[in-house]
Amino acid sequence: MRERGHLRQEDMALLTGLSQAFLSMLESGQRRLTNIDRIIVLLDGLNAPADLTGPMLRPVPLAPTPPFQAVS
């Protein structure tokens, strides 16, 4: 994704909140992205659409809560 978007690792770090060093290790195969929280941070930073990532890797929007009604 980084190469297709013509982004530097530093750009990806700014977008995702992951460090440039961590992203470098991911790309070189020295590290794996197995922590679901980090995966979600990466996907959110890239604004990856849910239809590409699957709904399980995307935060579920909270439903609006109905207003309180007075009880008499």
Structure write-up:
With 72 residues, the protein is mostly helical. 43% of the residues lie in helices and 0% in strands. Helix 1 packs across helix 2 (20-28).
Brief overview:
By secondary structure, this protein is mainly α. The chain has four helices and no strands. The termini are far apart.
Assembly state of the chains shown:
single chain
- Overall geometric form: globular
* Structural class computed from helices and strand pairing: mainly alpha
Low-confidence stretches: none
How many beta-strand segments? 0
- H/E element sequence: HHHH
Main β-sheet description: none
Strand content: under 5%
Through-space gap between termini: 58 Å
- If you compute it from the alpha carbons, what radius of gyration comes out, rounded to the nearest whole angstrom? 18 Å
State the share of residues found in helices, binned by percent.
40-55%
Features:
72 residues; mainly alpha; 4 helices; 0% strand
Topology diagram in text:
Elements: H1 9-16, H2 20-28, H3 36-45, H4 50-53
